[in-house]
Design goal:
The protein has an eight-stranded antiparallel sheet, with helices on one face. The protein contains four helices and eight strands. The N and C termini lie far apart (45 Å).
């Protein structure tokens, strides 16, 4: 029994530790933002075994929140009764699923296939449509959405698509 508990502690500790949010700073933030301004959002990243979750809290004068899953196996489910809208985000055609939350805010959700492996399950939330539009215009300039993705598999597989 002790051997099993020791094994469980050794195996589970990295998984639990990986679930703590880490702020994006320095070179990692610069690579993530590309030419984008570091003043628009405060970004955090959750690193899991085979995917990452990014959360961006808008800084004034922006308002709202952006979060997305980046990996190969998203669990995207459009909100029931959501309105669909066709648009672009950076270089990608996107079908947005627009819904209203109980608190009166607006949420846009989309699943964006970047290439054979990489998928982005994206959610943007704000109180006003004008804020949603500003957030989308800002994140559309991130290298993740503005540039051709690097491959997720094969001899030239990249850790991230940007």
């Amino acid at each position: 029994m002790r051997a099993f508990l020791l094994f469980l502690a050794v195996v589970a500790t990295p998984v639990i530790a990986a679930q703590q949010p880490q702020p994006l700073v320095g070179k990692e933030l610069a690579a993530f933002l590309g030419p984008g301004s570091p003043q628009a959002f405060r970004w955090q990243k959750y690193t899991m075994i085979d995917f990452e979750i990014y959360q961006g809290e808008a800084k004034p004068p922006f308002a709202g929140h952006v979060s997305f899953y980046l990996g190969g196996h998203p669990d995207f489910k459009p909100p029931p009764g959501s309105q669909t809208l066709q648009d672009r985000l950076g270089r990608y055609r996107v079908t947005w699923h627009r819904s209203h939350e109980k608190n009166g805010s607006i949420t846009y959700r989309a699943l964006i296939p970047l290439e054979q492996y990489w998928r982005v399950d994206l959610a943007v939330n704000a109180k006003r449509q004008e804020d949603i539009d500003r957030l989308l215009a800002t994140i559309s300039r991130l290298p993740l959405f503005a540039s051709k993705p690097k491959p997720g598999f094969g001899p030239n597989a990249a850790e991230h698509p940007w």
